[in-house]
Design goal:
- The structure holds two protein chains of two kinds.
- Chain A is built from 26 helices and 36 strands.
- By secondary structure, chain A is α/β, with parallel strands linked by helices.
- Chain B is globular, with a radius of gyration of 13 Å.
- The chains are: A alpha/beta, B mainly beta.
- The A-B interface holds A 543-548, 551-552, 570-576, 578-579, 583, 585, 587, 635, 827-828, 831-837, 839-840 and B 1-2, 5, 7-8, 12-17, 19-25, 28, 31, 35-36, 49-52, 55-60, 64, 66-67, 69, 71, 101, 103, 106-107, 110.
- Bound molecules: siroheme, flavin-adenine dinucleotide (FAD), iron/sulfur cluster and FE2/S2 (inorganic) cluster (FES).
- Residues 31-37, 57-60, 67-68, 70-71, 103-104, 130-132, 151-152, 183, 186, 271, 274, 303-305, 314-317, 319, 346, 451, 483 of chain A line the site of flavin-adenine dinucleotide (FAD).
């Protein structure tokens, strides 16, 4: 096979690599399309974009993706598309030739060329080896059986997902993970979220022994066991058995664990075979100098495959430092890599863990330990000669960055020693454990994002340049863009720098779970969950039956996802929704019957008057929602009151619900001299269509007959302002605590369209807002353009939303009062038999 | 004189819910049934502003008051977390599917 010297202006022999005849630039060939290889190219482009012609060989079939994020992909929190770092367009825009699914199999140093598995031979001027690591496979019988995999790339994740899918047919399926380090625990967490029964085998007596001390490891183990995983420590694998495919694992002590999938995550070895065969100097990794140059001056190496100054690394932060020095070297700026001190700040299976430096103890080391069992927090700082030399944090890792900073700078901590363990806010004299104050106290060069080496000063600069959301900061300076464990810090810097205007990321739903609202909703649908206990079980709730925050939210999410199927859980509703009336400060209730569009008649008024007299209601009042409110009704009397109101044709006004409240109207064209359309009639139709619907929060509608807007439609969740030529539709208004004027959604010509858009908008809000998020904050979060795109621009999508809304309304429009009046749930209204305490 | 008064069966109380018993015409006792079918009895008044605890959301062995969401431990009647205050509790026991409540303690809270 012929080769070409990359610098000579000829066409390359590889069929899909066309080199312009006049491209005389030096040719940089990169072996390995992974995290370090591509980052090195990015750094190079940032310094001198046109200098080299670049060709990248990748063994995997993909563009460059974020390997760290394979865990969230496995856990179902992200898709592959979400974790792509550089898409095809990036390669194209930068004139980079990418060859995928074709590993380089040999390097010819004499002729300066590489040859790939498929037979391509390409010349180079500079060669960069970034082959990463190979997972270590323990040499036990059965290691080659189908169903035994490692956890390194997307292909492995696909196998795991397929196993979990196949497991569904048999109630989940069983998996064994060999290795209780970070990777193994991440794999186990993902697989158990996917419904598999997982056993983790770890040969050492404690989990993650390289990052955690015994106490923290124990906390981690019990937390994972609490989520349903089986964890066997001191477990030595003898054999993987199975006939043609994996059937289980046998331990040396004879224990047998059945499994259809075995994930080996026992460690990694730098991938050096290619370099060794080429005769480069190789120790544990490919040996490089401070500019990442190997023993051949034209061959560089970077990433997990290298050994620098006797060290090999397995986390991304040091690799980024290497990439910077490498790019400097290639563009004649000789800064040089000096090695990295690493800290590990991780979310292991959603649990916060941090470690840095040396925590093995030893001569002259003192331990300072804080345990808070009820919060599940453990902190240990190791001090030697008045300097921090190591730290282990579990459960609360907020101060990890600070300890790491003290450690790296070798600062003398004698003065703050007593307060050290309570964290920065305390030790710096602040007293208040306010995370914002802690972040404010950090120096500008303090490292915020360990993965990408971004300092606080750089984050602030990025925000000042206009990045005012987490995503914008991630895009702008890469802080929090890799593993995400510094997200909280970045959010605090955002809050400090911007004051009120931060758009913060999703929080967990409540203390019972590590999932956010959006995650839970997505999983309910994806895993077709059908009851609150099922959700709590499958998503590993940390409390037996939730709390008063998550139970109502879950009840709503299930109700919304499964109209007509889900059976409402009364005990998961707030008192008002359970009692279908508003509780008052004295424990009595108020009753608000619906008055469609604010209209009423003598029969209704008479019935209300009768109820007020018959039940001795102390007050009756016209509400701000254009109807009447009867106060002071006892819970025992509610069913009878409702029966009387029902008899006059009235139904519940849902004044108590996270649901449609009122549709306010004005008199409109029927009477008013300015009215342009029949706003009262449209209001009544809208209320007839939407009443009874449960929502993330309360929902109010109004229809005004002209722009004078007497029904206050522009501070309602959905408002209609009639004009001569049709109907202006407004959304996202709020008249409560923070007044927000609506955004104009669009204008439509007919009443039917106004109704259709209203149904579609309501359903979009029902499906996508978080529980207790009114339309105003929801729209501020997702942006009105998004809502327009879904409701106005996408005709088919709007129609589908409308249809889903009307479908679910079939099950919602039974008057709850009528059911109760007929005797349903009577125990909610009646006392048990009274007793007298006098002796019998 | 019996020391335990029969107030009904487990099935009379909804799981993760409560029923009320009136004593001496005035005071109300809330009788709770938790998710794991344990029974607790407390005066039906939140230590905060006398909210009717029987109407709250029962979770674990606590109830969230319906008025301002204080969390009250069913066993001790103590407010949880930052909030301070305590609601009197009354001993109850289950025997052969019946719920029995302690008369002397009732007398004390009714007084
Ligand atoms: C009865 C009424 C006051 C009145 O006498 O006029 C009322 C009474 C209560 N409002 Fe209201 N609001 C009433 C109209 C309003 C309005 C005016 C309107 O709808 O045009 C607003 C401002 C408009 C808006 O919502 O955007 C209003 C904004 C609030 C808020 C703040 C909501 C917000 O998003 O900021 C709350 C608190 C909450 O919901 O968390 C609230 C909460 C309450 C509660 C439910 C407080 C509570 O939790 O107990 C009160 C219940 C009393 C009861 O037992 O009926 N009420 N409340 C009105 C009933 C309307 C109806 O017929 O259903
Ligand atoms: C599931 C998982 C979670 C992780 N979590 C974290 C974390 O939270 N924090 C952290 O800091 N680190 C984490 N890591 C480690 C981190 O991903 C690695 O340190 C990083 O990816 C190493 O980069 P690299 O470029 O050296 O190797 P890689 O990213 O593996 O890239 C090497 C690439 O070279 C390709 N290749 C190999 N040989 C050839 C050849 N001959 N020809 C062509 N291509 C070849 C490989 O297919 C691969 O695509 C995690 C790793 C995994 C697998
Ligand atoms: S404004 Fe609303 S919530 Fe406040 S006291 Fe009046 S009715 Fe109650
Ligand atoms: S009365 Fe119970 S919390 Fe206020």
């Amino acid at each position: 096979m012929e080769f070409q010297d990359g610098s000579s202006p000829v066409t390359d022999s590889g069929d899909d690599i066309l080199v312009p005849m006049d491209d005389v630039r030096e040719h940089l060939v990169v072996v390995g399309n992974g995290m370090a290889g591509c980052r090195a190219v990015e750094e190079l482009l940032a310094r001198d974009a046109g200098r080299y012609r670049v060709t990248i060989f990748g063994a995997e079939p993909h563009v460059n993706y974020n390997r760290i994020m394979l865990s969230p992909v496995l856990a179902g929190e992200k898709t592959f598309d979400d974790i792509i770092i550089n898409d095809r367009a990036w390669y194209d825009d930068n004139g980079i030739t990418l060859i995928t699914s074709d590993p380089v199999s040999a390097i010819d140093r004499t002729h300066k060329s590489v040859t790939s598995q498929s037979g391509r031979t390409i010349g180079y001027d500079k060669l960069l080896i970034a082959t990463g690591s190979d997972p270590f496979i323990i040499p036990v019988p059965g290691k080659d059986l189908p169903g035994v995999i490692s956890f390194r790339d997307m292909k492995d994740v696909d196998v795991m997902l397929a196993a979990a899918e196949a497991g569904k047919a048999v109630g989940g399926g069983e998996a064994v993970v060999i290795g209780g380090g970070l990777l193994g625990l991440e794999a186990a967490h993902g697989l158990s979220l996917r419904g598999m029964k997982v056993t983790v085998l770890h040969i050492m007596p404690t989990l993650m022994e390289r990052q955690l001390d015994e106490a923290a490891a124990w906390l981690l183990k019990s937390a994972l066991e609490g989520r349903g995983q089986t964890i066997l420590t001191g477990a030595d694998t003898a054999e993987i058995y199975g006939d043609g495919k994996v059937e289980g694992v046998r331990l040396k002590d004879g224990t047998q664990i059945p499994a259809s999938l075995v994930v080996m995550a026992v460690g990694i070895r730098p991938s050096v075979a290619l370099a060794r065969e080429a005769g480069l100097d190789v120790g544990r990794g490919i040996k490089v100098d401070d500019h990442m140059v190997t023993s051949d001056a034209d061959i560089l190496a970077v990433g997990e495959c290298v050994e620098h100054d006797g060290n090999v690394y397995g986390l991304v932060a040091p690799l980024w430092d290497m990439c910077r020095s490498l790019a400097d070297g290639l563009t004649d700026r000789h800064t040089g890599y000096k090695g990295s001190v690493t800290s590990t700040k991780l979310k292991v299976a959603g649990l916060d863990v941090f470690s840095a430096g040396d925590f093995s103890g030893g001569e002259g080391c003192e331990d300072i330990v804080l345990r808070d069992a009820s919060r599940g927090v453990y902190k240990r700082v190791v001090v030697k000669d008045d300097k921090v030399v190591g730290a282990v944090l579990y459960g609360d890792t907020a101060d990890g960055g600070w300890y790491f900073d003290l450690l790296k700078r070798g600062e003398n901590v004698a003065d703050i020693r007593d307060l050290l363990i309570f964290g920065q806010a305390f030790a710096s004299g602040g007293g208040a454990m306010d995370p914002k104050a802690a972040v404010a106290a950090l120096s500008d060069d303090a490292e915020i994002c360990g993965c990408n080496g971004v300092s606080k000063g750089q984050v602030v600069a990025c925000i000042e340049k206009g990045a005012c959301s987490l995503d914008a900061v991630r895009a702008g300076c890469k802080a929090s863009a890799s593993c995400g464990s510094c997200t909280g810090l970045v959010e605090n810097i955002l809050a400090l720098t911007l004051g009120e205007d931060v758009q913060s990321g999703p929080k967990t739903m409540c203390k019972c779970t590590s999932f956010g609202h959006d995650d839970v909703r997505r999983e309910i649908v994806a895993q077709d969950m059908r009851s609150i206990p099922e959700v709590m079980q499958k998503l590993h709730w940390s409390t037996p039956d939730g709390c008063s925050s998550c139970r109502p939210a879950l009840n709503y999410y299930l109700l919304c996802a499964l109209p007509g199927v889900y059976v409402d859980d009364q005990q998961s509703r707030f008192v008002n929704e359970r009692m279908h009336a508003n509780i008052q400060k004295d424990g009595t209730y108020s009753v608000v019957p619906r008055m469609w569009g604010g209209l009423t008649n003598p029969r209704e008024l008479r019935a209300i008057a009768d109820v007020v007299e018959k039940y001795d209601a102390p007050m009756v009042k016209v509400t701000g929602g254009q109807r009447l409110d009867i106060f002071g009704i006892k819970k025992e009397d509610l069913p009878a009151v409702w029966a009387d109101l029902n008899a006059a044709g009235m139904v519940s006004g849902h004044a108590y619900g996270k649901s449609l409240r009122t549709v306010k109207t004005c008199v409109g064209s029927e009477w008013c001299r300015f009215g342009t359309q029949d706003s009262t009639g449209l209001g009544v139709k809208t209320e007839r269509m939407t009443w009874g619907s449960w929502m993330p929060h309360k929902f109010k509608i109004a229809v005004s007959g002209c722009p004078r807007n007497c029904a206050e439609a522009t501070i309602k969740d959905f408002g209609v302002v009639c004009v001569d030529s049709g109907y202006e539709l407004h959304v996202g208004g709020n008249g409560g605590i923070h007044v927000r004027v609506t955004d104009l959604l669009c204008k439509v010509a007919t009443e039917q369209e106004a109704l259709d858009y209203c149904a579609a908008f309501t359903q979009l809000y029902r499906e996508e807002a978080r529980y207790l998020e009114r339309t105003a904050p929801w729209i501020e979060r997702v942006g009105v353009d998004y809502v327009k795109q879904r409701i106005v621009e996408d005709d088919a999508g709007r129609e589908a939303l409308r249809a889903r809304f009307l479908f679910s309304q079939q099950f919602m429009q039974d008057d709850p009062w009528a059911e109760r009046a007929a005797g349903a749930n009577s125990d909610l209204h009646q006392h048990l038999d009274p007793i007298s305490i006098a002796a019998e | 004189m019996t020391d335990w008064i029969d107030i009904g069966t487990l099935a009379d109380i909804p799981q993760r819910g409560a029923r009320t018993v009136q004593i001496g015409g005035e005071k109300e006792i809330a009788v709770f049934r938790t998710g794991d079918d344990q029974i607790f009895a407390l005066v039906n008044e939140c230590p905060h502003k006398k909210g009717p605890l029987s109407q709250g959301i029962v979770h674990g062995h606590s109830v969230a008051c319906p008025l301002h969401n204080w969390n009250i431990a069913l066993k001790s009647g103590e407010a949880q977390g930052e909030d301070k205050g305590c609601t009197p509790t009354i001993a109850v026991k289950q025997e052969d599917g019946r719920i029995l409540i302690a008369r002397p303690e009732l007398a004390k809270v009714a007084a």
